[in-house]
Amino acid sequence: MNSYDDDVRRTEELLARALSEEAAEVDPRPGALQQIQRRTARTSRSRTPWLMGALGAAVATAAVITAVVVIGDTNDAASNGTPAATQPTSPADTAPATEQQPSPTPTSPSPSSTSSPSAPQTVESTETVYYVGQGTYLFSEPHAMTVFDGKRAEAAVTEFLSFGPLDPDYARGWPDGLKLDSITTERDATTISLRGRVDLADANGLNRRAAEVAIQAMIRTAQVESGIVSFVYNGEPVTTLLGVDVSEPVTREPDQGVDFTPLRAPLSIDSLVEGWSVSSPVTVTVSGNVFEGNVNWELVRDGRVLDEGYVTTAFTVWREADAKLGRLEPGTYTFTAFEVSMEDGSRLNVDDKTFTVS
After folding, report:
1. What domains can be seen in the chain, in order of their start residue?
2. CA dist 306 to 23, 72, 160, 309, 336, Å?
């Protein structure tokens, strides 16, 4: 063997040792070596070109390995705040890259978790609002509203004071310009605190019974079920409200008094709200507490009676009954429920709703 062959073998051994030692110190990224092999695969059969190719591959391999080490250490240093030169090597550093588990991607917290303690939580809800109808009776309407921090009663009273009834036949009874401060309940006592610039002692054009019904509308809208109720206006206790003496706390009246005088409307349409759009076939639910339970109804469109009939409810108690109108053509209709006077045949306790069939 001549000196040329010895030099080649010696060079091969040195290169192999250097590459082996370097490879033992680093963690090459997957595919780096294959990329080098593909670049250096095109070689000649002569020893000199092979040697130059081997040298080129070795240099390229060392360069790639060094770059991988530098880049890997730099990335690790950037993520840990430690300079690459002083980043210690741990067993995890020498584990195969494919076995390393990526750090979990941070997820955005839900809106509820990011809300500050003082930020109100809101939900859309439907609450019952009460109004005065026919002068002396309570009627109810479901109203959609936003409820803050679960305060359904406050939302309902705010709706009551801020907006009128959907049905033009009903009235609030309370003057405009009032706002709710708070509703507080301790044991069996509820305080409704209001503010405004109107004379809250004034009867507001109501007779005594209508004023009492308006007060009961407020109490029921405030979702008071039992106990006594007091009113505060602009920070001061109220003794006269809508012309009614309330120096003694009032209570929620029952639907019907001991003398059978009803507070709740003797007859009402329960399944329709003024202006609603419904789909066909149509069924209307009526509640009644009328003589012999007889409730008449009629369906009108464009001023013409399309259909009429009656349902049986109850007397001395309220009971629901369904008036089945069947399939209706698209358009606007008015459904009217009423009691017929046994004396003169006139209509009593009338409730009507205008609705649209889509």
Report:
1. 3-98 (no CATH), 122-251 (no CATH), 267-357 (2.60.40.2550)
2. 94, 84, 35, 11, 12
